[in-house]
Amino acid sequence: MIDMEIIHSFQCLISFQQSDQYSNQARLQFTQNKINLLLNTQCYEIDISLKLMLKWKCQENKLISLHFQQINIQAGNEDLLILKKHLDCKATYVGIREIYDNVIIIQQSGIAKTCTLKSKLDEKMYFCKCYKKQQVEKYKIYEQLFILRKLVDFKNVARIIDFFESSNSYYLIFEEMSRVHYHGLSHEDIQSMMFDILCCIKVLISNRIFHSQITLQNILIDKEQNCRLIGFDHAEQLTEENAILNSLMLNMAGNAMIKLYQYNSVSKDSMSIPDYGNSLVQGLIQTKLDQQINIEQALSHEYFEYFDYNSSPMKQQQIVPKLKSFITQQSLSSQIDSNI
């Protein structure tokens, strides 16, 4: 019954591809999974899925129409924005330049290009990952979209906004994020980052998702200074909980923590980690399942005891370390992953 509930309904003008005139008065309404077009005594029902290809038309920072399945629809900007928000990442959009411009390439590595672009609708900057079709299979893009949509409300995962497809590429649009400058971080900054990373892993574990590349390269920061995980082309939805894969994600978090303190220590061979940091690292990188700490133990570890959860991320209050613990390369029981 919930799927049948009408979410929004509005008047529109409709024409079919053979006509350029918006001469037919109609009503568009949509439910969770369907779009219904009511034209005179006829009802056109369209399933909402990634197989549905839509093209929006924007003029003077406002949506004026959309086109799909040989149908052109013209309506007011506010109604079209409500419809678009519902369809974002549930349907496939074409014509990315109708909505976005000012593309600036940041990085090209592996199978994807990373760039920033500007929305014509709200004039805000966004983050985009572009995949060439010849280098990635569609089902992998769909799997990534499924996971990102599932985690869209979690603050430490990159927030997906739009999904576009062209003749040769796929485009995943995210809220604007930027790289973290790892050098010059304070102990409190690293605490904040580690807490965000571990919170993210907790959500991944609870949703039975495995991410194989939890590295500093895949940790970005948003405007509110929250750390956000990207790189979900290296993630998969599991059918059941997997203790070994959960352990691997905790191990990756431990290696990321080591790297953060290495970047901000005078000597990379001997690092000073306040607040029982050595104990947390050792617990995370432990390779034996019966000796490694679990995610709940990690989040409640003494390392975070004086951490101010109410202050702004990456701008924590200055604390007086109650203990200086030392960690050396020789004391680590597993090799540090240098691929960040």
UniProtKB/TrEMBL annotation:
Which keywords annotate this record?
ATP-binding, Kinase, Nucleotide-binding, Serine/threonine-protein kinase, Transferase
MF terms from GO for this chain are: ATP binding; protein serine/threonine kinase activity
Q: Report one GO cellular component.
A: protein kinase CK2 complex
InterPro entries in the cross-refs: CK2_alpha, Kinase-like_dom_sf, Prot_kinase_dom
Concerning Pfam families, the annotation shows:
Pkinase
EC category name: transferase
Quickly give the catalysed reaction. Answer: L-threonyl-[protein] + ATP = O-phospho-L-threonyl-[protein] + ADP + H(+); L-seryl-[protein] + ATP = O-phospho-L-seryl-[protein] + ADP + H(+)
EC numbers listed for it are: 2.7.11.1
* Classification via SUPFAM superfamilies: Protein kinase-like (PK-like) (SSF56112)
- Domain Protein kinase as annotated: residue spans: 100-340
Q: Which GO terms describe its biological process?
A: DNA damage response; regulation of cell cycle
Q: Which PANTHER family match?
A: CASEIN KINASE II SUBUNIT ALPHA (PTHR24054)
Quote the protein name from its UniProt record.
non-specific serine/threonine protein kinase
